[in-house]
Amino acid sequence: MTRVCFQLMVRPELLDEYIARHTPVWPEMLAEIAASGRRNYSLFLGDGGRLIGYYETDDDQAAQAYLANSEVAARWEAEMGRFFVGLEGRPDQAATPLTEVFNLADQLAAAGSAATDTTREGNAS
Length: 125
Prior knowledge:
Blueprint: E1 2-9, H1 15-21, H2 27-36, E2 39-45, E3 50-57, H3 60-68, H4 71-80, H5 91-94, E4 96-97, H6 104-124
Helix pairs in contact: 2-3
Protein name: L-rhamnose mutarotase
Organism: Microbacterium ureisolvens
Pfam family, one: rhaM
């Protein structure tokens, strides 16, 4: 599973309309997002129009390709493009990805396996 986080800037003068467009998103677009393999998808809006998106997928390249070829996604993204500052291309294809530097579950799992390895080594003596 891959976790993907991205950042975009929504034009401040269009914030209310942007929020309204997502309350709710078109049902056929929701279906396309799910069909692409993206899940646990959320958008968070910060001060000044900073938008952070997050989703999980098993194959991000396949999800990107699916949405790039989707007529529904193309229509949605054509309407959404005007909301963003400094964006070249479709928002779903051109968003700036963020690098993950910490994940609690991953580190707990690693710490647990390290503790198990240490316990095994201690018992081997």
